[in-house]
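Late entry, iron/sulfur cluster complex.
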Amino acid sequence: MGEHGREGDGLERWGALWEERTGLSRRGFAQLCAWLAATMTLTSGGVGRVAEALAAAPRPPVIWLHFQECTACSESLLRAHYPTAEQLILNLISLDYHETLMAAAGKQAEEARRATMKNAKGKYLLVVEGAIPARPFCRIGGQDAEAILKECAADAAAVIAVGSCASFGGLPAAEPNPTQARSVAGLIGKKPLVAIPGCPPQPAVMAAVLAHYLTLGRLPALDQLHRPKAFYADSIHDRCYRRPFYDRGQFAASFDDEGARKGWCLFKLGCKGPVTHNACATLKWNEGVSFPIQSGHGCLGCSEPHFWDNGSFYAPLSTPIGESGLSTGVAAAAGATLGAALAGGYRKVIDQARSEARPVTLDDLEKSS
Amino acid sequence: MNDPGYELLLWVRGPGWILALAVFSFGMAMRLFEIFALGRREDLAPPRPAERQGSPMRTVWNRFFPVPGLFERAPATHVSGYLFHIGFFAVLFFAEFHIQLFRHLLGFGWPALSAPLADALGVVAIVALLAALVSRMRDPVKRFLSTAGDYLAWALTFLPLLTGWMAYHHVLVSYTRMVALHLLAAELLLALLPFTKLIHAVTIFVARWYTGEQFGRKGVQA
Amino acid sequence: MSATLERGLAALRAGMDTPMATFFASCVHCGLCAEACLFYTETGDPKYTPIHKLEPLRRLWKQEFTLLGKLMVNIGLDQPVSDAELAEWEPLVYDSCTLCGRCSLACPAGNDITAMIRKMREGMALSGHAPEDLVHATQRAVTLGSPMGVKLSTLKAKIRAQERESGLTIPLDQPGVDYMVLFSGMEIVQFSEILGAMARIFKHAGVSWTLSSEAFEATNSGIQLGVSDLAKEILLRTVNAAEKLGVKGVVSPECGHAYTALRWEGPNLIGRRYHFEVVHILELLARLQKEKRLRLRQRDPEERPLSFHDPCQLARRGGVLEEPRELLGKIATDFREMSDNRERNWCCGGGGGVSAIERSEPLRAKAFQRKLHQIEELGVHTLVTACSNCRIILEEGLETYQIRVDVAGLTELVADHLEEDQPQTGAGAAGGES
Ligand code: SF4
Ligand code: SF4
Ligand code: SF4
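Prediction complete; structure with ligand written out below:
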């Protein structure tokens, strides 16, 4: 009981501090803390800690690199609603380098980056957006992408790969991958890494990971693919509100049929929800308004590796990817040829046995031995 | 850095499938040639008049049903055999997900069984196949006859059924991983079918026809 | 020359064809063929499973006629078929298979197992693994003209005796008649009344017939032994005699194997069709009966119930299914079908040469229990059949188990139930066929 009271007190106190520092509402602060604690699966006692840390945290410097990408990850972040992008950028972190958002450009910009790397050595967060191609693609300020990444990662506290391109290679790495684009993972040595895949990733997840780091000073619990478990443990399908239809075998067969109108499962229309790990089905998009499945379109599976090479968005998961007609035909022809050749040999054996057989006489029935 | 389940799923949906299909068609073509190019001699004995002949087509059909008197003698073989085959083919051809595959391959589909029914039939097939295995290991004749090939054929058939059921019910490992394993098992079944006893799925019809024809021309409906 | 493994294997190879490859490829080891075979059902020994009797042949197929099998042998994972293996299989291929065909009707895959066992015997015989008794029977058939050693002089003596008894002539070597009639050595020796019976029937129906002094033995032990060349040699006697006499048809007597040998295997043995028709005596009788040339009277209603044992070669493997019923329908007052009849009948246990193999007797006696059970279940006192081999086996078996049931041949039964008033022997009485 006292626990609870103290926690309430704490929130009040830290909320006041927060209001003072950021000029943002106390109520919003309390909600943010509760939400962060919940999504990070902290115990209820943690809410207080979150509040304390959040309000008092020094703003960690952040370097945000852009490589082969479309900036939708940044765009997505700008649509973060809790905390909002302004909250994040202006109050919670110190975004020292971000090609799209920063005012500086050219030499000035690169200098800012170097300054941060020097001044906040070992303390800054490195956020990477986009895949990293091989030379000579994607050069910035005379340096190629891989070199920039390595240089920046060397002294970073942690690296956060935002979006599917940085996490898995994404669109740039799609077959035939002409620039030999790669994800961040193989290029930063043993540096702690968080991957936040998605095309684009959920803004709330990006915000939450940053907030988590701010408040607790460490990265959230991650899965095998370095994804924060809190958001990626379940599949879309696990949390999909259309799931009961799936379980009953009720599927929309086209985008405007009776089933589609009734909101049936979109599996047949190519939904990749069953094999896609992301939080869209719970967090949704645009301040929780909706998400693709809710608006009648199957999940594309954008947060999974190779999603561009994963067959048509509209092909059901139970269908194969790629063209098998030619190879099947060729294989059948090869098999038939081999079979015919073998059979030719067999027939020879049979014919020989038939023609070489001397007429059997009574004497033949005695075993020589 | 890659999720083995997802990577495997990609592989089995892509190259794995293409490979399995190629191996299947290669093997099938080869085996059919191996078998059918041997030829057979013309039967010179004049057959019965047409109206008295047995029909080979009917033999092909008849042998789907128990031969009089045999059911009682081998109930386990019959019951497990029928239930397994019925369940297996029902889910293979009438589960929604599989129909999507056939639609993809053939360009057309057909109505599916309701999900709970398909699920139940899958369970029937699994249980029947387990019973068939127990019967194979305990029945004196079947135990005596069985070779590694029989058990291989059993396993190749059982795995897709089991993994399919487990994937559908999200048992044990993630759906992604289980679906990948299911497809892998199915591709294994497909690829090895021509080279194992599973080829009976194709050859029995011809075997029945030959026997039906041999007996039929003598005036006996086999 | 003598029998060698190589010659045996060559004979097996010579018999390979698409149906056999299909059959072997189709077997799923379901074991159902065992349940159809009397040697398994009565002994419970799995080694008598029909498909297992073909194991060396299956191995040969796999090793020489499939790619995978070849590879297996090449890398030492499989051993070629050996002489010892064939020797081990001799009792399975001969002693425990009557070529009854029941397994072929039971296999869910549709395998004609019996046809393969028939082919397998070719290899067994040429590799020197055929039972001595069968070899000797065939030797007698080739050298003496009959596996039982029945000579022409014996036949002539029997003819004279039967002519005396019936007061009818039994024609020998008469050209241009409708039918040349064959007998099994067994009939001539054991049941020679059949000669008189035939004479009465043909007289009654106005059918012209003859015996041939060159070919009177109907059986062909070359087939049971599994040596097509010798079977052909034996068969050619009949074919030549019939074509020399210019008969319209050859009548195969009450012997199942004789019928399948002559009717179904024969043309394939000699590589051409005959210039005459082959009919089984029951087919001919039923035909005559339908044409009203054979008028039968009912049995005394007081007489006890009878049943019919379908000889395997006649029914399942010969296609003579309804004829005996048509005839018995006219005669019997209380005819009872067995539980499994026609193409589903159970073998007496003596077909396929088994009855000639002395050492198989204990096994045969065991296998007979199947038939015994069927007979007992019916409660009949007379068992009619149409194969003298079946008849002997049935009599022996019933004797062994001390069951008092009479066994009779259907032809004789017909002869005994001809309507007394003599039929017209005028116009239209010459031809046997329509
Ligand atoms: S719409 Fe997609 S995610 Fe939702 S239940 Fe259907 S398959 Fe699963
Ligand atoms: S033919 Fe008859 S005796 Fe021979 S194996 Fe088949 S069922 Fe048994
Ligand atoms: S019944 Fe047919 S499939 Fe079954 S074991 Fe016998 S031969 Fe093989």
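Residues 423-434 of chain C have pLDDT under 50 and may be disordered. Will revisit in the morning.
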